[in-house]
Amino acid sequence: MQPKKEFDKIAIIGAGGVGATTAYALMIEGIASEIALIDIDAEKAEGEAMDITHGASFVQPVEIYAGDYSDCKKADIIIITAGAKQKPGENRLDLVKKNTEIFKEIIPSIIEYNKEAILLVVTNPVDILTYVTLKLANFPQNRVIGSGTVLDSSRFRTLIGENCNVAANNVHGYIIGEHGDSEVPVWSLTNIAGTQIENYCPICTKECNYNKEKIADKVKNAAYKIIEKKGATYYAIALAIARITRSILRNENSILTVSSLLEDKYEVNDVCLSLPTIVNGSGIKRVLRLPLNKKEKQAFQKSAIKLQNTIKKLNL
């Protein structure tokens, strides 16, 4: 495994709730040496950078500042969080046309200054915008990554942990497919301590089986509930972004459910969706093929068709 580089630079496009909280999470974890916050509202970016920087004495040395697209130069990773926000009552796909037009301005502005970075897309609908970014940037597909269902998988594990009264990091399970309404919980491979979830507690098997749909529904609708209550989500997604970023900069070969361009995965092609993926210093090293059961495979294919039909309507 390659050693961590002495200096790592990250540029964040968008200094709203997600972008600013991501910068904070990266600072807290000591992941980067330099973080540039870039936003159409320069005053907002400057205020966020100042606020975060004033905690510099409590963390590892890091330079955080507001900048413009020229500050994408020499960035190892460029994180894109800018775009129209999801409003109460909207689903992620409702944002697709608005944010595709915004990306048609963002991506050329990035590649004017940096054609070597890894692009990490967070803006929703993340799977479609990862595909849009790949087409607009014309980067190798391993260097265009969507945050995908990394957060959904964490929600999945957290809720199972609460249900089974074990720590979330001892639950192993994935949400695959779309980061959205057609996401697929892979129950057939979900386990605690190597024991499949339905066998973990034989005494309460019936109760646990009953809770499966309830848990999956809570995961799928979590963002809607949070937006309804407080207007936006940003803490947990910032931690998810920091986790992906760490895997790249430290060349970890971690397995994360990021979104990327798929080629012949369960008969799915030419669409960006999430599957467990080895992520390292090159970005996407390899997308894994899980032994899904028939129902899960069909749900994954249905998720792909849904996004492909939406992509066909875009002027790419």
Automatic annotation (TrEMBL):
<dbReference type="InterPro" id="IPR015955">
    <property type="entry name" value="Lactate_DH/Glyco_Ohase_4_C"/>
</dbReference>
<dbReference type="Pfam" id="PF02866">
    <property type="entry name" value="Ldh_1_C"/>
</dbReference>
<feature type="binding site">
    <location>
        <begin position="14"/>
        <end position="19"/>
    </location>
    <ligand>
        <name>NAD(+)</name>
    </ligand>
</feature>
<feature type="binding site">
    <location>
        <position position="99"/>
    </location>
    <ligand>
        <name>NAD(+)</name>
    </ligand>
</feature>
<dbReference type="InterPro" id="IPR001557">
    <property type="entry name" value="L-lactate/malate_DH"/>
</dbReference>
<feature type="binding site">
    <location>
        <begin position="83"/>
        <end position="84"/>
    </location>
    <ligand>
        <name>NAD(+)</name>
    </ligand>
</feature>
<feature type="domain" description="Lactate/malate dehydrogenase N-terminal">
    <location>
        <begin position="9"/>
        <end position="146"/>
    </location>
</feature>
<dbReference type="InterPro" id="IPR036291">
    <property type="entry name" value="NAD(P)-bd_dom_sf"/>
</dbReference>
<feature type="modified residue" description="Phosphotyrosine">
    <location>
        <position position="224"/>
    </location>
</feature>
<feature type="binding site">
    <location>
        <position position="92"/>
    </location>
    <ligand>
        <name>substrate</name>
    </ligand>
</feature>
<dbReference type="InterPro" id="IPR001236">
    <property type="entry name" value="Lactate/malate_DH_N"/>
</dbReference>
<comment type="similarity">
    <text>Belongs to the LDH/MDH superfamily. LDH family.</text>
</comment>
<feature type="binding site">
    <location>
        <position position="157"/>
    </location>
    <ligand>
        <name>beta-D-fructose 1,6-bisphosphate</name>
    </ligand>
</feature>
<dbReference type="GO" id="GO:0005737">
    <property type="term" value="C:cytoplasm"/>
</dbReference>
<feature type="binding site">
    <location>
        <position position="147"/>
    </location>
    <ligand>
        <name>NAD(+)</name>
    </ligand>
</feature>
<keyword id="KW-0963">Cytoplasm</keyword>
<dbReference type="GO" id="GO:0006089">
    <property type="term" value="P:lactate metabolic process"/>
</dbReference>
<dbReference type="GO" id="GO:0004459">
    <property type="term" value="F:L-lactate dehydrogenase (NAD+) activity"/>
</dbReference>
<feature type="binding site">
    <location>
        <position position="39"/>
    </location>
    <ligand>
        <name>NAD(+)</name>
    </ligand>
</feature>
<dbReference type="GO" id="GO:0006096">
    <property type="term" value="P:glycolytic process"/>
</dbReference>
<dbReference type="InterPro" id="IPR018177">
    <property type="entry name" value="L-lactate_DH_AS"/>
</dbReference>
<feature type="binding site">
    <location>
        <begin position="124"/>
        <end position="127"/>
    </location>
    <ligand>
        <name>substrate</name>
    </ligand>
</feature>
<keyword id="KW-0560">Oxidoreductase</keyword>
<comment type="function">
    <text>Catalyzes the conversion of lactate to pyruvate.</text>
</comment>
<comment type="pathway">
    <text>Fermentation; pyruvate fermentation to lactate; (S)-lactate from pyruvate: step 1/1.</text>
</comment>
<feature type="domain" description="Lactate/malate dehydrogenase C-terminal">
    <location>
        <begin position="149"/>
        <end position="313"/>
    </location>
</feature>
<dbReference type="InterPro" id="IPR022383">
    <property type="entry name" value="Lactate/malate_DH_C"/>
</dbReference>
<feature type="active site" description="Proton acceptor">
    <location>
        <position position="179"/>
    </location>
</feature>
<keyword id="KW-0021">Allosteric enzyme</keyword>
<dbReference type="InterPro" id="IPR011304">
    <property type="entry name" value="L-lactate_DH"/>
</dbReference>
<feature type="binding site">
    <location>
        <position position="18"/>
    </location>
    <ligand>
        <name>NAD(+)</name>
    </ligand>
</feature>
<feature type="binding site">
    <location>
        <position position="233"/>
    </location>
    <ligand>
        <name>substrate</name>
    </ligand>
</feature>
<feature type="binding site">
    <location>
        <position position="44"/>
    </location>
    <ligand>
        <name>NAD(+)</name>
    </ligand>
</feature>
<feature type="binding site">
    <location>
        <position position="172"/>
    </location>
    <ligand>
        <name>beta-D-fructose 1,6-bisphosphate</name>
    </ligand>
</feature>
<feature type="binding site">
    <location>
        <begin position="152"/>
        <end position="155"/>
    </location>
    <ligand>
        <name>substrate</name>
    </ligand>
</feature>
<feature type="binding site">
    <location>
        <position position="69"/>
    </location>
    <ligand>
        <name>NAD(+)</name>
    </ligand>
</feature>
<keyword id="KW-0520">NAD</keyword>
<keyword id="KW-0597">Phosphoprotein</keyword>
<comment type="subunit">
    <text>Homotetramer.</text>
</comment>
<dbReference type="Pfam" id="PF00056">
    <property type="entry name" value="Ldh_1_N"/>
</dbReference>
<protein>
    <recommendedName>
        <fullName>L-lactate dehydrogenase</fullName>
        <ecNumber>1.1.1.27</ecNumber>
    </recommendedName>
</protein>
<feature type="binding site">
    <location>
        <position position="86"/>
    </location>
    <ligand>
        <name>substrate</name>
    </ligand>
</feature>
